[in-house]
Amino acid sequence: MNGAFILLNPTAGRGKGRGLERPLAEQARRMGWDVVVRVTHRAGEEVELAAEARIAGWPVVVAVGGDGTVHGTVNGLLADGPTAVTLAHVPVGTGNDYARTLGLRPAPVPENLERVLSGQRHLFDVGRTINEYFVNGMGVGFDAEVVRQTLRMSGLTGFPLYLAAVLRTFGAFAPPDLEVAALEHRERGRMMMCNVSIGFTQGGGFRLAPGASPADGLLDVCLIRRVNLPKFLRYLPRVVRGTHVTLPEVTLFRTSRMTLTGLSDPLAVQLDGELRYPEDNTIEVEILPRQLHVLCVG
Question: What does CATH list as the number for 137-289?
Answer without folding.
Answer: 2.60.200.40
